Amino acid sequence: MITDGTGIPLAALLTGGNRHDVTQLIPLIEAIPPVRGRRGRPRQRPDQVLADRAYDHDKYRKLVRAKGIRPVIARRGVVHGSGLGVHRWVVEGCFALLHWFRRLRIRWDVHDDIHEAVLSLGCSIICWRRLKNHSIC
């Protein structure tokens, strides 16, 4: 899952249970829909990507830079306290919001397409609730 700075899910992919997270970094970045804003060409990608030590590999840093995104990834072997944990907690908060949906907390579905549909529905409900709470009426 990839979120914006406030914890709103931008894209989510479903993989097998034993897959490493770093293998899904580039597909997640490519799954982000274009952002509409001011008049002109919509922005296709975020400015930077924050990630934890699991994503620390030069190959993936180069791939992210090739997309025009600045990678802010914690280095392995460096002492903790880099300050990235302050910003990365928003993804964990989004996972916590998804765990409010019982079908996503424990996977009971045998078919992955049903589980992916429930995941998309859960992300949509999170976005809708956030928009509903912050709408100016």
Automatic annotation (TrEMBL):
Highest taxon of the lineage: Bacteria
All residue ranges annotated as the Transposase IS4-like domain in the record: 3-121
> InterPro entries under this entry?
Transposase_11 (IPR002559)
Q: Name one Pfam family in it.
A: DDE_Tnp_1
One biological process term from GO is: DNA transposition
- Single Gene Ontology MF annotation: transposase activity
Protein known as: DDE family transposase
Tell me the organism's taxonomic lineage. Answer: Bacteria, Bacillati, Actinomycetota, Actinomycetes, Pseudonocardiales
